[in-house]
Structures are given as structure tokens and as C-alpha cells.
Amino acid sequence: MIFKNRSEAARLLAEKLAHYRGMNPLILAIPRGAGPMAKLIADELGGEMDVVLVRKISAPGSPEFAIGSVDESGWTYIADYAESAGATPEYIEREKQAQLATMRKRRAQYTPVHPPADPHGRIVIVVDDGLATGATMISALHALRARKPKKLIAAVPVAPPGTLRRVAGYADEVICLHTPEYFQAVGQFYLDFPQVEDEEVVAILREGKQGR
Question: Beta 48-51 vs 26-29: how paired, if at all?
């Protein structure tokens, strides 16, 4: 399955999530790529859109390959293959601090236009444009579980089967449209996959705040 773009993938996910329509679900995007997707899904389901800030920890010399992730609180998920990928404890700590600094910067950008929504007691759907290792999704789900949502769902267009099995332990429900055995990168499953900038996410959040 190849998606035309993120909008098509989001519409297809919204169809799979249609049973949550009318329940005011909280749709949380993992920035930045999932920002426009979460907005579309929230509109389709009559829910509220926001972001959950997490960052991957990349392997040494391989910025696209995640060996773990960190959430805003500093909780860190480290994959069991991190050491074999060349990541020492010292390297992981440096990367963790760098990613925490990036999240502080993004929170300063996002929060003034859109105070964070409270997931407590709500149906929460975490959206990304695809999962490779699943590291950032795992950190997002872990951070949200601590805030006691009514139900916690991970929703993505594409991910390899092994990744979905890892993610499933952190969510009440996982929805994925395509689970290919052969997987190199998320972008290979989109015809059009442009980078989403911070300014676009801020504009989406501002529009959502004005709408409420």
C-alpha cells in the first residue's frame, strides 16, 4: 500500500477510528510530520487536536536510525540493540540532553498559542505518519499513560510487524493500515512526503485554539 500523501493516510485512519466520533477524543500528534494528520482526524471525529512532545535518540553516525527516545519528563526508552549500534551510556546521555533542549524550545513555541490539553479521563489517540523502530511512539504512550487517560490508542498508517508488537505493550489499542515485512523508511510508503516545519504546526495549533 502506497499513500498519496499524509492527508490521504489521515482520512483512512479516521475511517478506522470512526467509532470514536462524538466522544470528544483527544488526538495527539507526534511533531512534526503528524501535525496536519492529527488536525484532519480531529476534525473528522469531532475531537480536539494537540501535540505530545517526544524525541528519538539516534544511533551514532546514523541520524535517522533510532536506538531510543525521551519524553519531556526525561524518561528514556532505550532499545535492546542500542549497544550493538555503538551507543555508549555517555553517548546516550549527551543525546538525551540535546533532545530535551529541543523539546524545551518546541514547547516554548507551541504552548503560548495553545496551552496543552489534559488527557486525564479522555479517549486519547496518538498519531504519527508511520513507525520505523517505534521508539518515539513508545515514549509518547508511556508519558500519556502516567496521566491516566480513559483509553490510549496508537494510530499510524504504516509500520513493520515487529515494531507494532513492541508498541502494543504500551497502548490499549493499536491501529495500523499497512504492516509490510519489507521496510526501509516511512517515506517509501508515500508518493508525496514533504517535511513539515514548526511554523505549520504552530499555525495548526493556533487555528484549533481559535476554533474552540
Answer: parallel
Task: Give me the residue spans of the domains in the chain.
Answer: 6-53+116-211, 56-108
Asked whether 62 and 84 are in contact (CB, 8 A), the reply is: no
Contact indicator for 149, 124 with CB cutoff of 8 Å = yes
Evaluate whether the domain defined by 6-53+116-211 bears CATH number 3.40.1080.10. Answer: no
What pLDDT band is residue 9 in, cutting at 50, 70 and 90?
very high
Whole-angstrom Cα distance, residue 131 to residue 170?
A: 14
Vertex 145 angle, CA 143 and 148, to 5°: 125
- Cell matching residue 101: 533542549
Residue 159 backbone phi and psi in degrees, to 5 = -170, 150
List strands edge to edge, sheet with 123-127.
48-51, 26-29, 123-127, 151-158, 173-178
Q: Is the pLDDT of residue 23 over 80?
A: yes
The mean-pLDDT minimum among 63-77, 101-115, 184-198 falls in: 101-115
Name the nearest CA neighbour of 197 among 98, 124, 109, 131. Answer: 109
User: 12: which residues sit within 8 A by CB, 6+ positions away?
Assistant: 3, 157, 177
- Class in CATH terms, 56-108: alpha beta
